[in-house]
């Protein structure tokens, strides 16, 4: 009788904590969100001068990048953006290689983030850096690539990190599609822009934005798993993604409390069920031994 009561308790517990609720859930997407992060040559703007009014980054999560655009890679070869897509998620950075400060910090931060990743660059994901300065050359892109391949020091870095240049129409198309708004400051003779990296699905759909110049490795890892449609990662990673959702407004992953409670509840139910089953089997063995002893006597 006691087992039936315990089983009833387990069932009731699971109904409360494991079954999904019917309330409002935290959204994982949402409308376009504008972020003015790292505007200017490495300086966060407090006031907004006229030149900064058109500068910022709009999150276009769920939007398709134009993969038919043509660029020139660091070797001088003409490439179509689509050739990098199809099999694995992409980390996209929009920079210009002759930038005096901010773009270098973006690339440095990106390199620091991907260097310790357990996923292999070139095999599990690829990185595409595109210059938004139409005057920059493949030679400059090649010099930049050599620097970061050496710093990254991973076997697949040379094959998996691409540095592209392009003409004005292609640059305008990719920056517009990504929501990357910048202007050229004639007085300072440099571009004024924000700082961010984006994660893109193998199909070329924007899925995540990370702002600033430092990007948490764990957040980027989860973004790559999500963007790969769970082809990367483990079962434990799927549990993490259930408990942590990407917040577009913050550009970070945050805890979903109710999902954490559900996972904890499911673990408790499983543990209690295992305990009941073990106790039931133990009592049956003891009972069978008692019967055998009586029969022998």
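-> sequence recovered:
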């Amino acid at each position: 009788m006691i087992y039936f009561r315990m089983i009833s308790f387990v069932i009731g517990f699971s109904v409360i904590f494991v079954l999904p609720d019917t309330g409002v859930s935290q959204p994982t997407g949402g409308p376009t969100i504008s972020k003015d992060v790292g505007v200017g040559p490495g300086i966060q703007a407090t006031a907004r001068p006229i030149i900064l009014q058109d500068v910022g980054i709009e999150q276009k999560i769920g939007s398709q990048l134009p993969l038919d655009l043509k660029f020139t890679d660091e070797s001088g070869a003409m490439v179509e953006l689509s050739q990098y897509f199809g099999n694995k998620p992409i980390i996209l950075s929009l920079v210009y290689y002759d930038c005096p400060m901010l773009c270098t910090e973006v690339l440095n931060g990106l390199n620091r983030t991907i260097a310790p990743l357990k996923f292999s660059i070139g095999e599990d994901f690829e990185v595409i850096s595109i210059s938004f300065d139409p005057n920059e050359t493949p030679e400059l892109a090649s010099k930049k690539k050599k620097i970061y391949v050496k710093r990254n020091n991973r076997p697949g870095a040379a094959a998996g990190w691409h540095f592209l240049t392009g003409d004005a129409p292609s640059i305008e198309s990719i920056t517009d599609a990504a929501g990357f708004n910048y202007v050229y400051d004639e007085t300072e003779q440099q571009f004024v822009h924000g700082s961010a990296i984006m994660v893109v699905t193998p199909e070329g759909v924007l899925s995540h934005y990370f702002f600033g110049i430092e990007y948490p490795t764990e957040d980027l890892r989860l973004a790559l798993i999500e963007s790969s449609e769970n082809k990367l990662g483990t079962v434990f990673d799927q549990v993490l993604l259930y408990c942590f959702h990407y917040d577009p407004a913050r550009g970070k992953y945050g805890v979903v409390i109710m999902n954490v409670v559900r996972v904890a509840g499911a673990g408790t139910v499983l543990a209690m069920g295992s305990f009941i089953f073990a106790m039931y089997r133990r009592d049956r063995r003891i009972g069978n031994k008692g019967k055998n002893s009586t029969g022998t006597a």
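Residues 1-34, 40-45, 257-267 have pLDDT under 50 and may be disordered.
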